[in-house]
Amino acid sequence: MQGLLTDCTVQEAYLNSFLRKRLCIGKTTRTLYDMKKESANATLRKEYERTMNRSFDKKVGSIAIVVTEDTYDKALTAFNIGVAAIEMGMHVSMFFTSRGVNIVTKSYKPRRARWGEAPISWKETFIKRRGGTVLAQLMYQAKDMGVHMYACYTSMVQAGLQERRLLENVKAVRMTEFLGIAIESDIHLVIG
Question: CA-CA distance, 94 to 108, in Å (whole number)?
Answer without folding.
Answer: 17
